[in-house]
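Q: Joint fold for the lines below.
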Amino acid sequence: MPKVIIVGGVAGGATTAAQLRRIDPDIDITIYEMGRDISYGNCGLPYHIGGEVAERDQLIAATPESFLERDIIVNTHHEVMGVDAGRNTVQVKDILNDRTFDAEYDHLILSPGSAPRIIPALFDVPQAFVLHSLEHLDEIKAHIENEGIERAVVVGGGYIGLEMAENLVHRGIKVTLVHRSEEVYPPLERDMSGFIVDELKAQGVDVKLNAEIMEVDGDTATLTTGEEIDAPMIIAGIGITPRTDFLKDSDIATNDLGYICVDQYGRTNHENIYAVGDAIETSYQHVDRPVNVALAWGAHRMAYVISNQISGDRSVQFEGLLGTNIIRFFDHDIATLGLEVSELDDYPHFVIDHKQKNKAGYMADSLPIHVRLHVAQEDGKILRAAVVGTEGVDKRIDVLAAHIRLGGTAMDLANIEVAYSPPYSSPKSVLNMVGYKAIEKMNKLQK
Amino acid sequence: MPKVIIVGGVAGGATTAAQLRRIDPDIDITIYEMGRDISYGNCGLPYHIGGEVAERDQLIAATPESFLERDIIVNTHHEVMGVDAGRNTVQVKDILNDRTFDAEYDHLILSPGSAPRIIPALFDVPQAFVLHSLEHLDEIKAHIENEGIERAVVVGGGYIGLEMAENLVHRGIKVTLVHRSEEVYPPLERDMSGFIVDELKAQGVDVKLNAEIMEVDGDTATLTTGEEIDAPMIIAGIGITPRTDFLKDSDIATNDLGYICVDQYGRTNHENIYAVGDAIETSYQHVDRPVNVALAWGAHRMAYVISNQISGDRSVQFEGLLGTNIIRFFDHDIATLGLEVSELDDYPHFVIDHKQKNKAGYMADSLPIHVRLHVAQEDGKILRAAVVGTEGVDKRIDVLAAHIRLGGTAMDLANIEVAYSPPYSSPKSVLNMVGYKAIEKMNKLQK
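A: Joint structure:
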């Protein structure tokens, strides 16, 4: 019976285990998870604080007990400290019992995930938290309830920071958002993101830009601007790093940033070692360029690919990622896909900017959508897309993802026969019009 | 200067005229429209009755005056009575002045549209209306206001009937819906459409199935069931027929039902005669089979194709249609695309049925979506899709339209990298899961 060891039991690891068991009822599966919990909905954590996820336990998809019923062995509080790829063993630390042992595998699946970054000023600050796990959620909730928290500081204006700010506001907590630059939500083009700070202010959030927390003393935080702010609770959302230090003595290949390199089968540089989830480097789907996308869609897809590889169906491959992403920010939807803005310089391209109502313009509740495409001059390939609006943004970004995946160009968007009825679209939809604009632009360039 | 005559000035005709002028500032364009108005948003008419389109004039995209500013001549109340393709002339009746004349063209564009069907029992009934034009809208509104209408009968449970019922309810009018069979909204699979009658009843609509109006006497209508109902206003929405009788003495090819046959350039059997809009027969995009789709998307696309053909860019083609459609019905969204149910028998296929929440299941406001695909056994091609739910249906049908257009199969849906965040989707989206189900089904069939 081949023995599979999975390092990490959250999204990537748990999904791979479940999928593998589904395909192969007999294979021997053991998960080592350093934390307390497995298989919880990471992305849903902020929404329990805001109340949109009513019960905490709704976030839990599987437990060690439910996995055991499917003959999947889960060891929580077990940290994998190293991999000996030559001997096909991992070195495991049983944290609660403070002992270390080696475990043998035939196939190893690495799903160590990422660790939230933390700033030095918040080391050892008891009211400073991150929200990266169910344990963190429990800590934050307990702190809010025990301390009667009515004010909080959110550090970071990225997606975690914005989701935290929104959910704290929904909970009735007065928020101060501290962001180190002027540019909140870096995934979005700077000239498209101005509404975010406006909305934060409209929601009563005190926004401190170009500021960092320098020091915390009691319930007071001092910013690099000199200002002192009330900080009875601080939640930092300033990014993540892959949790791959345990691989440093192995010869499993990682990139400069520590992400584990995998091929289209999810395989590392070792035939029988796979990796999935936040800690992997894969490649873009639409251009030949490496990328790391710490998002759930890719983890779920890769879990499927790896479980098929291991169980013998080698035909299933990972196509790479567009990095399609979206966040809801109060009434706004913000979505992007494709290359990051900073990567665009390497590709001669033009920009299509288009604003149109999300439904027939004569409908009383029609609302504007703004689409920006970065289009390769050479062939019309859509290199990057950004879509913002307050309704129907998710539709447009998903259509773009489906279209790009099958080789559709910007010009080709004119041909997508969307479902038209006044409550949903115009007869020439937002994306159709983007396509017509791309045709005009391309025609001009070719003259 | 080539002379273009356009028969019909509503969606297809007006859009073609505008597009042609945009491409070619010099070409000579004349529109003959038998009705009073041109270029109004047909699909928006019911929503003005319900109040979602606040001002009637918002429905008007262009007028004869605004077209004249762009050097497009519009003759309303002018009915084209015949076409002499040999002599390149049309016979025109100036209705208000009761005179007839011939007009010459170099290119002729037929956009006569469709006429609403009417049942004999409603002939000469003063309070019986259809809603197919702005004139009809004005008549209905005047009748509601002048007669203080508080009750109305809607005849027909197709999309016009359902939209009318909803909008009358929104206006506070008590509705009786009379439908001749048990099966309302025929575009949708019968076993998926049960909620429609439930919702009608929940909205206070009195639903009379298996019934037709047999006779109207004063404000009372007698049904074929013998029942008498209050009918101070009757709106019939029982389908349309192509308005192509004027072609019967020409040799312009039409199909058995009177739809004008066109090729991928929008051309009829005459090199210089094109047709667009409700009255054409085109072909499906995804299977080789003729179809007529009286919807706005195709009219707008064909307007673009024809105007490019005439102005010399022969590379632009019409790809055929999926018939992607959607209606909003109170809180429900109902969408389909592809073959009609009755056409499926000709294609060996299997069915994928899938129900899943529209967003992460732990979100308090997540709502179920039901997707049904009819998939060709041979190659996994999606022959037909139906999607119903109360949120996010339009997204799924549009993604399907984009996917099918570029040759994506049912199995392939697993690979679409949708934008995931708990308020929008699950990590494995509704369509991804449909894809995984199709893979399993296909694997079983091939064993």
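Q: Anything notable?
A: Chain B touches chain A through 67 residues (CB under 8 Å). The longest strand of chain B covers residues 349-357.
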